[in-house]
Design goal:
The protein has 2 helices and 9 strands. By secondary structure, it is an alpha+beta fold. The chain has a 5-stranded mixed β-sheet, with no helix packed on it. It has a 4-stranded antiparallel β-sheet with strand order 2-1-4-7. It starts with a helix and ends in a 7-residue tail after the last strand. It has one domain: Immunoglobulin-like (Sandwich), CATH 2.60.40. 17% of the residues are buried.
Length: 151
């Protein structure tokens, strides 16, 4: 009888632990801000989907801020790379090593204006670091010179 009670209690405790588990923040993920407003935020499995971000290149005072989370680790040798539709590197922005788990990386929209070539309206935004040497595409930047509504 005592053995059955012990096994039942152990099973009940185990079930409670399994079903009450929730994912806590602090895993790998990133946020992209446009003028200090979050426009893209992705963590975990969401990171396998690349979202589009419309940008108005005439809004030369606009700023993109990227924050990448490495599961609580500090990012080293951080690089934001802008590529065209054919994956040619157009520009690399290098940042000093982060001093905390998350450190902002700033890209001015006016710095992207000179990268747009021809009729192409797509720029790809990538992030890489010592912790993520192969890099990750974070967003497609849909650029134009018209009146795109900033999110």
């Amino acid at each position: 009888m005592k053995s059955i009670f012990s096994k039942t209690m152990m099973l009940l405790c185990l079930s409670t632990m399994v079903f009450s588990y929730t994912t806590k923040p602090g895993g790998e993920g990133f946020e992209i801000y446009l003028n200090n407003k979050v426009v893209i935020q992705q963590y975990g499995n969401e990171m396998n989907t690349v979202k589009s971000l419309p940008l108005n290149l005439q809004a030369s005072n606009d700023e993109l801020t990227i924050k990448y989370h490495h599961c609580g680790n500090i990012g080293k040798n951080r690089v934001i790379t802008i590529k065209d539709q054919q994956n040619n590197v157009l520009k690399e922005f290098r940042y000093v090593d982060a001093t905390s788990g998350v450190s902002a990386m700033l890209v001015r929209v006016k710095d992207l204006t000179v990268l747009k070539k021809g009729n192409s309206s797509l720029l790809k935004l990538y992030y890489s670091s010592s912790e993520l040497p192969k890099g990750r595409m974070l967003a497609s930047l849909m650029t134009n010179t018209g009146n795109t509504i900033n999110p």
